[in-house]
Structures are given as structure tokens and as C-alpha cells.
Amino acid sequence: MPDSAIGRVDHALEVVQLTDSHLFGEPQGQLLGLDTYDSLQRVIELVLAERSRIDLVLATGDLSQDGSTDSYRYFRQLSERIAAPVRWCPGNHDQRENMHEVARSSGLMNPVLDLGNWRIVLLDSLIPGKVFGRLHAAQLALLDKTLGEAPERHCLVCLHHHPVVIGSRWMDRLGLRNAAALFDILARHAQVRVLLWGHIHQAFDQVRDGLRLLASPSTCVQFEPGSKTFQVSSQAPGYRWLRLYEDGRLDTGVSRITGFEFQVGADIKGY
């Protein structure tokens, strides 16, 4: 069952997506030479400076790089600076049990909530020990049931792994392995407006049969779009904002921190 409607509103919903923060069990941890705690903190400061009201924060996986409970505590502490409900779904670097431990007695890992005229569904595509993802039968059943129970609500569906080809050879091998099963379910439920994910560390925006397909920058290191092999981009960390209207329309965009300088080591071939 979904959470009870959180603050039913008559205005457009203001949603922020934070993804692929890759925090460590110590605040000074670095991914490819970048301090991920510092970059997440700076992105959250940007969110607070730019958005006067936020109704929901979606954290779409790889909150942690090492899967430690401390890394999730750091993420929770930083994200709680934003005065809004927060929801998490796991990515390939996450450790599911430790996420649930830190989220205990909160709604952070609840996969369904109703907000205004929208239903938000977060799916778990993590396969422990693998970089690519898969939605197991229970997740597909949850999605189908949840959508079937609320045909009158517009819906946004989130997961970590990308379910479509993005044009980057190395990354396209690491996406969602059973994307066809996901799209079969979505095709049966016309109220789904948005499919949102992380994992690819870059902005992505397409439309497929009327469904908006969106991915977003990491709050830390970015990957070069269109690259054949692993390649880090010079673009700055950032976040995605979404404005969800009562009639099912949406506006969205990406915002990045400024004054960012980062040089990945020449000997680094992956993350």
C-alpha cells in the first residue's frame, strides 16, 4: 500500500532528483579523485538556493560507493537539510540491507506514495555483485498492481538502471537487462507520464510513445555522453528538478554547481 497522501496540494508539485552520490563511510572519501561528500553538500546548497518550495526529493540509487551504514547516515543527514519528504531506491553500488537499517522507522524506502494528483513508484533494480540491473518478478508485480489500483492518478516511475539505449557503448552494456518486461507493464497503464532514472551520470531526455524518459547528472563525477569506452566528463555535478502539474503535464530541467574544477587521473579506467 502507498504512503498516505503527503500534503495534498492544489498547485504543481516541485520534485528534486538527487542521484549517484557515491558517498563513503568517511566524509573525505573520493571517487576518481573527487570528494563526493563535498560535491553532494554543494549540490544541496544549490537546491536550497534555487528552489523556494520542494514537495519531494527522489534519491535514485548509488547513494553510497562502499555500501556502509555510515555512508547512508551521511546521505540522510545532508538530504534532510531539504524540508521535504525523501524517498530512496537502491543502485548497483548500494547495499540493500544497510540502506534499510538506516531508513528504519522512516518512510525513506517506502516504494509508493501519493502526492497531490500523482502517484510516485520507486523500483529496486539492484542485483548484488553486478553493475547491470534487473527488475525481479516481485518488483514487476508491485508496479503492475500499484498502477492498476490508481488509474485516475498520473504516475512517475523511478529506478536506478537505464531501460533504453543511451548511445554510449560501454554504459549500454550495464543497463536494465529486462527492460521489455518493464515497458510491457507501462504500456498497459496509460496514466504513467514519466520514467526517471540515474546510473548514467549524465542528462538524458527523450519521449517514447508519449512517455517522458529522463535521467540526470550525478551529484559527483559525470560520464561523457556518447563515449565508446569509460570516459569522465568535465561537466559539473548537479541535480534535476521536475514540476508536476495536476493535469499530467510536467516541466523539468537540470541545474549544476558553478566554480567546479575536477581532473580525473589519466590512469583511471573505470569506477
Q: What is the CATH superfamily? A: Metallo-dependent phosphatases
- Radius of gyration using CA atoms only: 17 Å
| DSSP strand content | 15-25%
Shape: globular
Notes on the protein architecture:
The structure is a single chain. This protein is 22% helix and 25% strand. By secondary structure, it is an alpha/beta fold. It has one domain (13-256): Purple Acid Phosphatase, chain A, domain 2. The strands form 4 sheets. The chain has a 6-stranded mixed beta sheet with strand order 6-7-8-9-11-10, covered by helices on one side. Strands 5-4-1-14-15 form a 5-stranded mixed beta sheet, with helices on one face. The chain has a two-stranded antiparallel sheet with strand order 2-3. A hairpin with a 2-residue loop joins strand 10 (204-208) and strand 11. The protein is globular, with a radius of gyration of 17 Å. Residues 4-9 have low confidence and may be disordered.
List keywords for this structure.
271 residues; Purple Acid Phosphatase, chain A, domain 2; 5-stranded mixed beta sheet; globular
Q: SSE layout and pairings?
A:
Blueprint: E1 13-18, E2 30-31, E3 34-35, H1 36-50, E4 56-60, H2 69-79, E5 86-89, H3 96-103, E6 112-115, E7 118-122, H4 137-148, E8 154-158, H5 169-172, H6 179-187, E9 192-197, E10 204-208, E11 211-215, E12 222-223, E13 232-233, E14 238-244, E15 250-256
Parallel strand pairs: 1-4, 4-5, 7-8, 8-9, 9-11
Antiparallel strand pairs: 1-14, 2-3, 6-7, 10-11, 12-13, 14-15
Pfam family, one: Metallophos
Family: Belongs to the cyclic nucleotide phosphodiesterase class-III family.
Protein name: Icc protein
